[in-house]
Amino acid sequence: MSAESIFVRLFPRLWLSPRALFWETKERVHRQHSARVTALVILTFLAALLAADDVNAQSSAQHSSSLSVPTELRVESAPWWPTKGSPVRTEYAGSAACAKCHAEKAASQVVTSMARASMRATDSEPLKSHPELSFNLSQYRYELVTKNGQSLLSVTNGVDKTTKNLEWALGDGNFGQSYVYRENGKYYECQLSFYTVLNNLDITTGHSRALPQNIEMAAGGYTPPDSIRQCFGCHFTASTTNDQFDPDQSTMGVTCEACHGPGAEHAALMTAGMLNAKGLSMDLASLDPADSVDFCGACHRTYADAVLKGLSRMGIINVRLQPYRLEKSKCWGKGDPRLTCVACHDPHVEVVRGSEFYDGKCLRCHRQSPNTKPTTDHPGTACKVSTKACVTCHMPKIEVPGTHTTFTDHWIRIAHQGEPYPD
């Protein structure tokens, strides 16, 4: 039985419907909150046990993954953490307020893939440049037409027909883009996504390619409230405020406050000349390595998240969980504490995809010549093969079935061509 299954059996209502556990009095709310945190601490303990088991199974991975904490506990206990939905909407200032003092970072961030992580479907570049798309799946015929301010998906099997108004597009379209629609207050992920390499539609990653049972299932899959809230929490800014999910009031994409937290108080303090005051906004540079990687892992999945939910043992698909893979590296934990997500990726600028760009990142810690003695700044072993295109050997690209793209494996290692994918 998995750790998640054990936890669900021990705390079924706490896990499945946290809002149903709100007590009617302030004292009982406090008791409920304390019990929830205690339960999540137990969850963290289980994660540590499973991580230790994973270390035994993967003895070559010298990492300290027990430092990773489940995102749910982070969100519950930290004043601010990505996807936290408790702040009220008036606590958000908007990116324009941030740009008054941080103009350069705001200007570069707004054109990143993160900033374009979501948009209205009618604002989607793939759909605007492909206003009429079609796809066939056995007897089902799909047509996705974008015009007159709407993106409409029609599905027919020759007898029945249904049409869905696609409201949101998720993903910037660099590799692909998925779509969400709603009916009667329920949210659905479209059965089809746009894939850039195909220049056309195909079955959405994670959806079954089996023949749908009916016309409604052919259009899309129902996404439960907890899942849609998590999905929007990572692709939008402030889609949940005051613990109420309200995507219509959200800000499209991952903007300043999605990571740094609601900025209204901080902006007011800066305007008042209180330059040393932070408000709720986070100084991400102050996080230690484990916290820093877990911070990004709130959306990209922490090591603890991957282990507890069984994703760590799902094979090649977990290459998409960059924090989990990174923390399996020999460089992590017992290696250089500078090794975090932001050591290589600046979230304020677009991700660089050329391999040569990262050579300088590797050589900040690794020595360039085997004859050079290690120093405090360069404790890493020198590569005997080359000092160029390091990531092509040590962080190979992995093609994940059903995604029509490749992902860089962040488990830093000596990767031999043709070897099995290391789970």
Describe the structure.
It is a single chain. The longest helix is centred in the N-terminal third of the chain and has 32 residues, at 26-57. α3 (26-57) runs antiparallel to α4. The chain has helices spanning 3-10, 12-16, 26-57, 71-77, 95-99, 103-109, 125-129, 215-219, 225-235, 256-260, 264-271, 289-300, 303-308, 322-326, 341-344, 359-362, 390-394, and strands at 118-120, 132-137, 140-147, 150-156, 161-165, 168-170, 176-183, 186-190, 192-195, 200-203, 220-223, 236-237, 240-241, 244-245, 251-252, 397-399, 406-408. The chain has two domains: 3-78 and 283-408, no CATH class; 118-223. It is an alpha+beta fold and 423 residues long. The model is unreliable at 1-35 and 55-66 (pLDDT under 50).
Strand content: 15-25%
Secondary structural class: alpha+beta
Number of domains: 2
Please outline the major beta sheet: 7 strands, antiparallel
Percent in helix: 25-40%
- Distance separating the two termini: 19 Å
Q: Averaged pLDDT, please? A: 85
Net shape: globular
* Rg computed from alpha carbons, rounded to a whole number of angstroms: 23 Å
Q: Catalogue the unreliable spans.
A: 1-35, 55-66
Total beta strands: 17
- Treating each run of at least 4 consecutive H or I residues as one helix, how many helices? 17
How are the SSEs placed, and which strands pair?
Blueprint: H1 3-10, H2 12-16, H3 26-57, H4 71-77, H5 95-99, H6 103-109, E1 118-120, H7 125-129, E2 132-137, E3 140-147, E4 150-156, E5 161-165, E6 168-170, E7 176-183, E8 186-190, E9 192-195, E10 200-203, H8 215-219, E11 220-223, H9 225-235, E12 236-237, E13 240-241, E14 244-245, E15 251-252, H10 256-260, H11 264-271, H12 289-300, H13 303-308, H14 322-326, H15 341-344, H16 359-362, H17 390-394, E16 397-399, E17 406-408
Antiparallel strand pairs: 1-6, 2-3, 3-4, 4-5, 6-7, 7-8, 7-9, 8-11, 9-10, 12-15, 13-14, 16-17
Helix pairs in contact: 3-4
